[in-house]
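Record type: ASSEMBLY
Status: queued
Input:
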Amino acid sequence: MARLIARRFVGALAVVASVIVVTFFLTRALPADPAVYFAGIGGTKEAIAAMRVKLGLDRGLLTQFFVYVRALAEGDLGHSLTTGHPVLDDLARRLPASMELTITALALAAIVGLPAGIAAAIRPNSWLDHLIRLVATFGVAIPTFFMGLMLLHVFYFVLGWAPPPLGRLGSFAVPPPHVTGFYLIDSLLSGDLSTFFAAIAQLALPALTLALFAVAPLARATRAAMIEVLGSDFVRTARAIPLSRAKTLFIYALGNAMLPVLTTIGMVFSFLLGANVLVEKVFGWPGVGSYAIDALIAADYAPVQGFVLLIAILYILLNLFIDIAVIIADPRAAGV
Amino acid sequence: MEFARHLPYMQPRAGSGSLILIVALGLVGVVAPWIAPQDPLATNVAVALKPPSSIHWFGTDAVGRDVFSRVLIATRLDLSIAATAVALAFIVGAAAGTISGYFGGWIDAAIGRLTDTIMAFPLFVLAMGIVAAAGNTVANIVYATAIINIPTYIRVARAEVLVRRDAPFIQAARLVGNGPPRVLAFHLFPNVLPPLVVQASLNMSYAILNAAGLSFIGLGVRPPTPEWGIMVADGAAFIISGEWWVWLFPGLVLTGAVLAFNIAGDGLRDFFDPQKR
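Status: finished
Output:
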């Protein structure tokens, strides 16, 4: 098992390496001539030439790649022209906002999606099963940003239940003292319930938007996995013994059905990281996604590259984590 | 296209309904300039932000443009971005996947590595990165959408070829003296086509979503060009003041288009592969 896990580690490292190669090319490809760009508007020929040397553009591709990798290793992702800060600092400051949103959404989707999928598998073709299919069909077809706007219109404009879409706390609240960067946790740690509820109120709609998008694939995967497991020999045996219905369902069947669900969670997380960008824009959420959008519109490219690299590495880490969880849960299924 | 012959018999009804919707959307895309009641670019501040009425069916936007006309005109751009991207991804992905599966060895390894690299990114984020790198143009939206879709076709084509590579009919084709290009193009590829077509239909919906998402965040299509994603983004500014028609109608049409291609794709899959149903 240790060897398997080690192999997954090496695999993940290889993927990180190829991701870095891709971001390197994205960096070089953009903008058309980085030297002209960094020399600024009205840069003289000499300034551009000097910048070319400084950026290492006069050297071979391979040398440039090593320069790039060394900067990465030192945590140097360049400077943001719009905020004036190093990109790494900006990303680090804004990442908790994005993670809080994504993880809340994923948790919401799992809390609803898994039981719904199990129920649908126990009673295929019941009304719940059809409802899930309907939600699944629409859930993947409605663009997240459109869903966000519809929820906002209903819950903010018509009903007045939700606060205006202005970030994590509204305009006048003070963020809780920084511990984890997750406002929900930090406000509880400092015992500040009013901030906690303010944070929940702001988080509710964007998290719901993302969760509506994620719940369908989770429910479908759970349903499919459960149906397959429920038809297997060991479940038939468990029923024949007879073990109690609850034990058969929740210990034996569910335990075995969890593996494909786990992999689906990884896939859903990837969608969420992309959809996050759109939802952050709709709700004015100060995460890494809206940071990248603002930079992109201002033709400020270093933050965008940093963002792409960060998200890719996060995603690889998550997949590695899931792979290892699968290996630990069931070494056979991991394909020894 | 051999499968087209069977389309009239395709069930269930949702499948045929979605096909009708797709054809209708395609028609609108073609004839929109002639049936749009107003000039989609003509501004008229006197009627700015008016709710739906008999003159302006979908209301008017912030500068008094007719939302209905803009939604109609946008159909062509949105559908052609998605269709071009899917066609590109289909051609490149099918070719690479077929070659990869047929020859194996280092070609297969190299193409596999490439696929894994693309799949290592959350795809929408990669598309953002590509557009940022290559330049903020509509053409680059198309390329970015194509690139993030290529791995799907590679995987499907490769898997289908692997299954059939050593099938008796392929061996027979080789035995009578067909070279690899001929075997690939005329014996293997026609058999790989149906699952790829299913994939393309499902992919259309994803491509539409992706392109609309990119323009929603301000990439690619520039205002005042009508495009569904941008129109929703324009309308988002009025969420506070409640002028819902500015974003609702383009969003609904966008959703309808995505839904239609999704359901059609599911229908095609059931048709080609009833066991998976």
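Annotation: The longest helix of chain B spans residues 67-103.
Annotation: Chain B has a mean pLDDT of 83.
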